[in-house]
Amino acid sequence: MSFVVAIDGPAGTGKGTITKIISEKENLLNIDTGAMYRCVALQCLNNNISPKEEDKIKEVLENIDIKLEFIDGNKKVFLNGEDVSSKIRTPEVDNVVAIFSALKCVRDKMTPLQRKIGEGKDVIMEGRDIGTVVFPNADVKIYLDCSLEERARRRYNQNKEKGINESYEEVLASIIERHKLETEREIAPLVKAEDAIIVDTTNMTIDEVVNCIEKIIDKKRIK
Length: 223
Ligand code: DC
Prior knowledge:
The chain is an alpha/beta fold. It has helices at residues 15-26, 33-46, 54-63, 91-100, 104-118, 130-134, 148-162, 168-184, 206-220; strands spanning 4-8, 29-32, 66-71, 74-79, 82-83, 123-127, 140-145, 197-200. 51% of the residues lie in helices and 17% in strands. The strands form 2 sheets. The chain has a 5-stranded parallel sheet with strand order 2-6-1-7-8, sandwiched between helices.
C-alpha cells in the first residue's frame, strides 16, 4: 500500500523547505515536480528554443532524462546526467518556467512521469496540480497559501543569500506575473483541490507549518 501526500500551492509559500523536513520526519520520498518543469525550461533556454517552437520542445522532451536524488540529505537534480541543482533556480529560469510549464506537450510528458516516480511508494509530492491532476486520490492534500507580498519578501531574501541581485519590486512583479500565468492557464491550473486543506503560511513559522501538516498526516496514516 502506498501513501501519498500532495502539497500544492504557489511559489514562495515555503513548499520546498516544508516538504523536505516532512519527508525526512515521516520517511516519505520527496518529489519536487517544479524541479522537473525547471529542467525542461533550462534545456530549452540552453538550446535557444522559444515556447512557441513546439516541434523543438517535443524533441527536447523525447530526449530528456531528469533524475531527482538525495545526496547527504541534499536534494540534487540531474538533467541528462549533469547536476543542474543551482542552474534551474536562476532568475532566467524563474522568468520563463511558467510559460513552458503551461504547454500541453510539456505536461503530457511530465504528469505520467511524476505518477511513475511515485507509484507504489510512500511519497510527498509538491507542485501545483498534484492533488487535482497527478494524484487526485492522494491520502492527504494540502494547499499552502501565502500573501503575494510575503512570498516576494521570502524569494527576495533567498535570492540575496544566493548572491542574486534583484530588487524587491522586481521580485514582486515576477511573482505576480507567474501567479497569473499559473492560475489562469488552461491545462492543470493552480487551484485548490476540493478536498484539500488550506494552510495559510503568511504569519506562520516553518516549524508551525510543519507541525500543522504533520498532525494532518498522522491522523490519516497508520504507521
Ligand atoms: O515550484 P517551482 O517554483 O519550482 O515550480 C516551477 C514552475 O513549474 C512554476 O512556474 C510552476 C510550474 N509547476 C507546474 O506547473 N506544475 C507543477 N506540478 C509544479 C510546478
